[in-house]
Structures are given as structure tokens and as C-alpha cells.
């Protein structure tokens, strides 16, 4: 099942990210997919605010991965990845990705996750797709198809709590 949210400005997209932060407990791996300029980094900024990250989140395009300390009961670090320039998933594996993603004290957010979907663990994976609908209009689609009940729950709760749902489609993954 997929659930969609339409946002009308960048702040609204940040709010959706902030809302998702309230559902996280640690160990989640969040795949952000979709168009360039779709709002993936903007969404991550809101999510980071929700986790009380003090630093400003910028696009890690030239570093692949950036670690931010988090102030939270059960989450210690937010890892923000951008795989736009990744040519081979092995590069990511070499950075110790498996250990980072498996650590229940980390939340891992991955822009362009489709570039390394083979090595992203499915257990705690939540997929979110960003579509460009116009100058300020974006469509955010949550997949509720996840092996993790918590991620399925987040995927269906967030669109409802954000109050902007549109039609649901059953049985699809977003990759
Ligand atoms: P991505 O990381 O997916 O490439 P960014 O978050 O870096 O996208 O960029 C999105 C751009 O679109 C930003 O300049 C942001 O201000 C703008 N924008 C306009 N409307 C929205 C919206 N509704 N949601 C998110 N970003 C928006
Ligand atoms: Mg980005």
C-alpha cells in the first residue's frame, strides 16, 4: 500500500519530516527516492529538527555520508547519505554501511537509495518517494510495504497525521 501527501512549500515538507521523527525509535533505514529537487534534503532537514540535531543539514553530495549527533532517548546518531554520485554499491559497503544501518542507535536516511538498493537491509526499511508536481508543489509517497511493523505503521500514520492524504494504491514497493 502507498500513501501520498501533497505539500505546497518547503516548510510543509520539513514539517512532514519532523512528524516522521516522532515515530522513530532507532535502527530505521529510510530510503528517499525520486526527482532532483523533489525535496529529499528539505525533508531530511525537518527530520533532523525533529530529532533535535543542532547542526544544519546540508546536501552531502560530495561526501556520500555525514553523521550528526542526536539528542533523543534511544537514538544517538543521524546518518545522512546522498548516493547521487555513487558509481558502485561496493563504495558504500567499504564505508562500513552495514554496521551503521544495523545499529539500533542510528537512524539512517539515504537520498538516491535506489543506487544501492541491493545492500540496503530490508528489515527496518521505510521507503519515501518525492515527486515534482510544480514550482512549489511536491508529492510525498510513503510505502507501507515494509518487513518492519514499526515502519509500516510510520508509513500509514504520517500521511494521516499530516492531514493530507490522497488515493491509496495497494501492494507496491517504491524502488
Ligand atoms: P532534493 O534533495 O530532492 O534534490 P532539495 O530538498 O534539495 O531536493 O530541493 C528542493 C527545492 O525545492 C528546494 O529549493 C526547496 O526550497 C524547493 N521547494 C519548493 N517547494 C517545495 C516543497 N513543497 N517541498 C520541498 N521543497 C520545495
Ligand atoms: Mg538532496
Question: Could you explain how this protein is built, in words?
Answer:
The longest helix is centred in the last third of the chain and has 14 residues, at 149-162. The mean pLDDT is 89. This protein has helices at 10-21, 40-50, 89-93, 97-102, 149-162; strands at residues 2-7, 29-34, 65-69, 77-82, 106-111, 125-132, 138-143. Helices cover 27% and strands 25% of the residues. A 7-stranded mixed sheet has the order 1-7-6-2-5-4-3. With 175 residues, it is α/β, with parallel strands linked by helices. The protein has one domain (2-162): 3-Layer(aba) Sandwich (Rossmann fold), CATH 3.40.50. Helix 1 packs across helix 2 (40-50) and helix 1 (10-21) packs across helix 5 (149-162). It binds adenosine-5'-diphosphate and magnesium ion. Adenosine-5'-diphosphate (ADP) binds at residues 7-10, 12-13, 36-42, 59, 111, 130, 136, 138.
List the keywords:
175 residues, alpha/beta, Rossmann fold, 7-stranded mixed beta sheet, globular, binds adenosine-5'-diphosphate, binds magnesium ion
Helix share, percent: 25-40%
Number of helices: 5
CATH architecture: 3-Layer(aba) Sandwich
Kindly, what is the distance between the CA atoms of the first and last residues, rounded to a whole number of angstroms?
A: 13 Å
How is the quaternary structure best described?
Answer: single chain
Which hetero ligands occur in this complex?
adenosine-5'-diphosphate, magnesium ion
- The tally of beta strands, per DSSP, is 7
The overall number of domains is: 1
Record the strand order, biggest sheet.
Answer: 1-7-6-2-5-4-3
Q: Going by CATH, what is the homologous superfamily? A: P-loop containing nucleotide triphosphate hydrolases
What's the rounded overall pLDDT mean?
Answer: 89
Amino acid at each position: 500500500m502507498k500513501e501520498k501527501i501533497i505539500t505546497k512549500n518547503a516548510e510543509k515538507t520539513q514539517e512532514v519530516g519532523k512528524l516522521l521523527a516522532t515515530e522513530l525509535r532507532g535502527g530505521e533505514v529510510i530510503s528517499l527516492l525520486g526527482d532532483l529537487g523533489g525535496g529529499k534534503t528539505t525533508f531530511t532537514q525537518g527530520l533532523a529538527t525533529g530529532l533535535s540535531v543542532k547542526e544544519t543539514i546540508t546536501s552531502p553530495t560530495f561526501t556520500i555520508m555525514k553523521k550528526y549527533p542526536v539528542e533523543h532517548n534511544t537514538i544517538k546518531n543521524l546518518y545522512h547519505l546522498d548516493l547521487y554520485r555513487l558509481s558502485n554499491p561496493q563504495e558504500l559497503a567499504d564505508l562500513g554501511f552495514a554496521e551503521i544501518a544495523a545499529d539500533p542507535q542510528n537512524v539512517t536516511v539515504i537520498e538516491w537509495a535506489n543506487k544501492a538498493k541491493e545492500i540496503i537491509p530490508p528489515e527496518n526499511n521505510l521507503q519515501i518517494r518525492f515527486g515534482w508536481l510544480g514550482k512549489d508543489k511536491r508529492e510525498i509517497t510513503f510505502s507501507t510495504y515494509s518487513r518492519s511493523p514499526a515502519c509500516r505503521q510510520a508509513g500509514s500514520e504520517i500521511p494521516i497525521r499530516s492531514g493530507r492524504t490522497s488515493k491509496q494504491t495497494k501492494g507496491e514497493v517504491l524502488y
